[in-house]
Every structure is written in structure tokens, then in C-alpha cells.
TrEMBL record:
Residues 24-201 form the START domain. This is START domain-containing protein. GO terms for cellular component: cytoplasm. Pfam families: START. InterPro entries: START-like_dom_sf (IPR023393), START_dom_prot (IPR028347), START_lipid-bd_dom (IPR002913), START_lipid_transfer (IPR051213). The lineage of its organism: Bacteria, Pseudomonadati, Bacteroidota, Cytophagia, Cytophagales.
Length: 218
């Protein structure tokens, strides 16, 4: 009986381990392409058309300059893909804000809007900066002219390297509503890439280079 039990447990353990390994493998990031020093990876989400995005790149800048741009909410429409309007709803703390974006969608889709909270923190020892955006869709009454995005998360991890800052960006979003796969993939494929390119242009501006209003250690 002991032999049978041990054999059964061994088989179950093998099946469980294999299943977990297969699941983790299926959720690994897959390299897609590299453009202008920006490496793009995708990871499939569930059984639908959605994909998470990871981007790795290097900024010719310092940490405080990038943080200044990331927390300049009124200027989001100058670099974040398809954002046509952005407003700070409330300042929660020195490095934490709640904001509202309106997103221009290609016709005939209804435009989207999103309410999110951004928080930036820094490790005092390693100088690593983490910037996280978490959806807070109930933070503002719904507008009948927009589809409110209710599933959104983004994270920047910034580290000092020789000659600049290495950035890793992870992006997850479900635009909601009934959208064709091609349109969803347009925002997944082109959105983050164009936003990163826009951010790189923004941090070249003097108004970000000459300020460190958030106490970031470079």
C-alpha cells in the first residue's frame, strides 16, 4: 500500500510540476522587435486578443529629468499615444497624483477615458526608481461620451547605467467595449512604442533638465 501511495504521489507531483512549468513558459515574454534602441516584448493575456507589453530602452538622461516628465500630467497629450486631454484630479503626496486622460480612438470606435493614480518611489541605496500607474476608474463620474477603461496597469523601472538610465516599461490595458482585434493590436503594438519615442523627446527639454522638484537622487 505504501508503495502504491508513494507511486501515486510521485505521478501527481510530476503532473503538477509539469503543468506549472508549462503555464509559466506560456506566459514568458516573447521578443517582437527592436526599433531605434527600443526592444519590444509581448506576453499573451488569457485566450483573447490582448497582450501585455514590455519595453526595454536606455535614456540619455538622469533619473530626476525622467521623473519630472512622468509627473507633468498636463503635458501627457504631447507624448502619450492618442491622449488628447489630461488633467490632474488631485495631488495625493509629493510623488503621487491622480489624473484623468481622454484618448482619441480611430473612427468608428468611441473615444476612451481613464482615471489612474501614479506613484513614484526611489530606493535610497540603489537609486532605482519605480513609477507605477494603477487604474482607479471610480475616481470620476462616468461620461456618456466616453468608454471608461477599467483595466489598466503600467510600471517603469529606472536604473542608472553608464551613460544614462536603463528603463524597463510594462504595460497592460483592456480598452473595453467591442473593438476589432486589429484596433486592439494597433494600440498594443504602436501605442507604447510611440509613447516611449515621445518621452525621449520630452526629456530633452530644458524645463525638465533644470528641475528636481521631487527630490530624486541621481
Amino acid at each position: 500500500m505504501d508503495r502504491i501511495m508513494k507511486s501515486t504521489l510521485g505521478i501527481l507531483s510530476f503532473i503538477l510540476t509539469t503543468t506549472i512549468f508549462s503555464y509559466s513558459q506560456s506566459n514568458d515574454w516573447k521578443f517582437v522587435k527592436k526599433i531605434d534602441g527600443i526592444s519590444i516584448y509581448h506576453r499573451k493575456v488569457g485566450n483573447g486578443n490582448l497582450k501585455d507589453v514590455k519595453i526595454e530602452t536606455t535614456f540619455d538622461s538622469n533619473l530626476s529629468t525622467i521623473v519630472e516628465a512622468l509627473l507633468d500630467v498636463p503635458s501627457f497629450n504631447k507624448w502619450i499615444y492618442k491622449v488628447e486631454y489630461s488633467k490632474t484630479l488631485r495631488i495625493i503626496g509629493p510623488n503621487q497624483v491622480e489624473y484623468h486622460n481622454r484618448i482619441n480612438m480611430p473612427w468608428p470606435a468611441v473615444d476612451r477615458d481613464i482615471v489612474a493614480i501614479n506613484k513614484i518611489s526611489q530606493n535610497a541605496v540603489t537609486k532605482e526608481v519605480i513609477s507605477e500607474d494603477v487604474c482607479n476608474w471610480k475616481g470620476l463620474p462616468l461620461d456618456k461620451n466616453f468608454v471608461r477603461i477599467k483595466d489598466f496597469y503600467a510600471k517603469w523601472t529606472l536604473n542608472v547605467v553608464n551613460g544614462g538610465v536603463k528603463g524597463t516599461y510594462i504595460f497592460h490595458s483592456d480598452p473595453g467595449g467591442d473593438l476589432p482585434a486589429a484596433m486592439v493590436n494597433l494600440f498594443i503594438d504602436e501605442g507604447p512604442l510611440n509613447s516611449i519615442k515621445g518621452l525621449k523627446k520630452m526629456i530633452a527639454l530644458d524645463k525638465y533638465k533644470t528641475r528636481n522638484s521631487h527630490g530624486i537622487v541621481n
